[in-house]
Amino acid sequence: MLSQLLFACSTSPDLAEKYKPKGRKVEVVKKGESFLLMRDGEPYFIKGAAGYEYFGRLSKYGGNSVRVWHTDNAQQVLDSAHAHGLTVTLGLWMAREREGFNYYDKKLVAKQREELREVVLKYKDHPALLMWGIGNELYADGSNVKVWDAVNGIAEMIHEVDPDHPTTTTIMNVPHKVVNLIVKRVPALDILSINSFGAMHNLPGELAKTDWKGPYVVSEFGARGYWESYYTWWMAPIEQTSSEKAEFARQRYEQSVLADTSRCLGSYVFLWGNKQETTPTWFSLINEQGEETALVHEMRQLWGDTATAMLNKPPYIAYLTLDEKFAFDQIYLRPGHTFEGAAFTYDPEQDSLQVQWEVLPESEVQDGNADKQEKPAPVADMLVRQEGTKVWLHTPQEEGAYRLYLYLRDGQNNLATANIPFYVTNKPLK
């Protein structure tokens, strides 16, 4: 029977269409002053992660959705998500003004919309599709408000060809003027998506000050962003330890996502995988070897994974020093000298810990785009001795900015990370 059906589908367009997998109806429903995301008539609260990897773990840990930024490998993403029982907020990448796109050019705008129409038509019936993400932080380093007219045109096009899935666009935090522009110029938008990290603690309150009265999704959150961190005098952002990130993100999730039961439709933690952005550890919840940081454990608890209480917990890093100084002390070191680094750490289960140190030069962003960074090569021959969670490094003759990194592994696939920036110079300090 199955072979006959497959043969009939391959030879009969009508029958093939009949047995074609259909997408599921997703819509926003308002009840009183509250909003619900409904999928096939059932409430659907997003417990998601942003990234392209480890969908099986996400599903196993209690997550239900993934967010991606573009459709370059959309079929693979959608199929993999569906196989693991996950949905997808599928990003429709729109060119940004900072990348040279001219939103005054009507022909160019129309061409982009028609190209995205083909993408929507291609994937609109996939059963894993949850919603369409139109662009990502489109106003960044731009000033042309007509970008929002283009977003509205794409949202209207989606409603025309795919009425079964809502539309959203992404902003960074809650810039009041930008949000009010979106309300005015993008009436076809169903949901507002907000990337928010350090500022997430007062997100519902800030949004209440704007003209947006609809629902929203926290489309990225996690550690304090490098753009909102404390900086050294040579403009190196100071990164939290992985242990600090876990508590930091949990607090903000509770203050915003869980606290706003009327308008927040859920969230996506950032980043489910690894990425070099300022450092290789800043946003990476899971490293290249698949080892998991403490924020993964926090998310499992927040997503309701009942197995979390029985899990082996990650190592904890309380602090890291270099030359008996903290990062906030502005660490300048003389070239050609040896200095001691030390960390205070512990493991909840008293597991035997593997300690790894390395020194990397500070990353440089050549074009203002942190997305295009690559992890720099470790500096050779700088580490001269290691003793437990202490290390001695010999500074190079070359002046410049560096970071000392610490990685702790407990043998249970758990990872803790920390780093401390320092500057090598012969110049007298003021």
Describe the structure.
By secondary structure, the protein is α/β, with parallel strands linked by helices. It has helices at about 1-10, 15-20, 55-60, 75-85, 105-125, 145-160, 175-185, 205-210, 240-255, 295-300; strands at about 25-30, 35-40, 40-45, 45-50, 65-70, 85-90, 130-135, 165-170, 190-195, 215-220, 265-270, 315-320, 330-335, 340-345, 355-360, 385, 390-395, 400-410, 415-425. The strands form 4 sheets. It has an 8-stranded parallel beta barrel, surrounded by 4 helices. Strands 12-14-17-16 form a 4-stranded antiparallel sheet. The longest helix is centred in the N-terminal third of the chain and has 18 residues, at about 105-125.
Topology:
Elements: H1 2-11, H2 13-18, E1 26-31, E2 34-39, E3 42-43, E4 46-50, H3 55-60, E5 65-68, H4 74-83, E6 87-92, H5 106-123, E7 129-134, H6 146-161, E8 167-172, H7 176-185, E9 191-195, H8 203-208, E10 216-221, H9 242-257, E11 264-270, H10 294-302, E12 316-322, E13 332-333, E14 338-346, E15 354-361, E16 383-387, E17 390-394, E18 400-409, E19 415-424
Parallel strand pairs: 4-5, 4-11, 5-6, 6-7, 7-8, 8-9, 9-10, 10-11, 13-19
Antiparallel strand pairs: 1-2, 2-3, 12-14, 14-17, 15-18, 16-17, 18-19
